[in-house]
Amino acid sequence: MTSATAPDAILDAALALADEIGWPNVTARAIGARLGGGPDLVHAHFRDLNEVADAWFRRALATTLTDPADTSLPFADRLTRIFTRWLDALSPHRQASLDMIQAKLYPSHPHHWVPLVFNLSRLVQWMLDAAECPATGRRRQATEIAVSALVPAALWRWRRGDNQSVKDFVSDKIAQMENRFDRIWPLGSPLPP
């Protein structure tokens, strides 16, 4: 392949390698070799392997957003479906996904920490938008914070591979969140600024 190798082919090669040898062992040289070239194939599209990992998470999110939310369902159910659809999108490369997140958290990689926080925020914003979140004002802010906290908690459970128990956990936590917020900020009532 040439340096014009498509980013998707590079990502697919990186994921295949990660599944075989583990993400910590993947190098640009190994990805390039798998594609019949050198590390320049990766460098043509990605600054580093962290960007390759970001491309995987963007792909999983894009898969999550392909189907519109069923607006006949309550918001808690819509959000649960979107959230668990995201986990399902990551599942084919579960260990690689977890390794990618862990690599972003290395103490020697503080330059990855801030972007990780912003990426989490973007993920939550997209999930809430896809689920057609009806909350505004403080309830919306509280929803964003609660769902942001739910992501690492769900990933911690998801790492074990029991998808159904994770889905039940996510569903329970979102239902609890909505019940709590309904008492504090009922939908349809005027909210303080």
Walk me through this protein's architecture:
With 193 residues, the protein is mainly alpha-helical. It folds into two domains: 7-43, Arc Repressor Mutant, subunit A; 49-184, Tetracycline Repressor, domain 2 (Orthogonal Bundle). It is built from nine helices and no strands. It has helices at 7-21, 28-34, 40-43, 49-64, 75-90, 94-104, 110-130, 137-158, 163-184. The mean pLDDT is 93.
Provide a compact summary of the structure:
The chain is mainly α.
Write the layout of secondary structure elements.
Blueprint: H1 7-21, H2 28-34, H3 40-43, H4 49-64, H5 75-90, H6 94-104, H7 110-130, H8 137-158, H9 163-184
DSSP helix fraction: 55-70%
Mean of pLDDT: 93
Rounded to the nearest angstrom, the distance between the terminal CA atoms is 57 Å
Pattern of helices and strands = HHHHHHHHH
Overall geometry: elongated
Number of helices: 9
Superfamily at the CATH H level of the largest domain?
Tetracycline Repressor, domain 2
Unreliable runs: none
DSSP strand (E) fraction? under 5%
Query: From the 3D coordinates, which CATH architecture of the largest domain would you assign?
Result: Orthogonal Bundle
According to DSSP, the number of beta strands is: 0
Kindly provide the radius of gyration, computed on alpha-carbon positions and rounded to a whole number of angstroms: 19 Å
